[in-house]
Amino acid sequence: MNNINPLFTVVTVCRNEENTIEDTIVSIINQEYSNFEYIIIDGASTDKTVEVIDSYRKPIKEKNIPFVFISERDNGIYDAMNKAIKIANGTWTIFINAGDELYDKSVLKSISKYALTNKQSVIYGDVVFKDKNHYKHMKARDLLTFDYQNPIYHQGSFTKTKELKTYLFDLKYKLVADYDLFLRMHIDGKVFLKVDEVISIFDMGGVSSSNLRKCCVEMNNSRSEHNYKSKYVPLVMVIESEILSLARMLAIEVLGSKFYSPKRGWKNSI
After folding, report:
1. Core-most of 39, 116, 126, 166, by most CB within 10 Å?
2. What does pTM read for this prediction?
3. 235 within domain boundaries
4. Average pLDDT over residues 80-98
5. Number of structural domains, the chain?
6. Cα–Cα distance, 120 to 192 (Å, whole number)
């Protein structure tokens, strides 16, 4: 590992994201830090996603960014992410998938100073939620929240590539394979470093109540599979997630744009 400028691998997974992929690419290739490679795994898009990606081959080449682009059918987002892991060369890997963005041009430069030792396996920080052009700063959580939710957003974390190659994402988890991977690392005693940095902008994309319920069920299954004891009752957690999701949807329906008020931490710009 280059102890001065560690190599990062930035991965974007996409399928039929012609309207969002460009902002994602731009946020990555305009980084001030230059020692990184970029991998895009596309799931055989049928819209103009591939055309948009191809239009950036020249600027990527001009910036001397090592670039790999694969477009083929896969078995979902985590299968595509596993494909990227297997060919990644960086010491650290981050997933910034279509619709998400690195927070600003200095992210890789800011994180590089934390990536100079071999002690930690995961470096994670804050993210900004984006929902209908409204933004909310979300602080990184403590690892204790593994009991009931994922303390780490994959968009807000850098993981040692060698660890990712060892663990990989378990494809039986369709929605929370990232939670499962981080949980397995946590149980195995890997070191997680929480940093006071904003890493990415996370496009919420209208999370549905049905998906939230499925996420909750899958997290319960993951904890059970790995004998991770939680003080929370699984059924109660599922019901609570559904109630909170429905309450949020109702509030947005009734309040409209007022839901995204500054009092609730939302802003109209970053």
Report:
1. 39
2. 0.91
3. no
4. 98
5. 1
6. 6
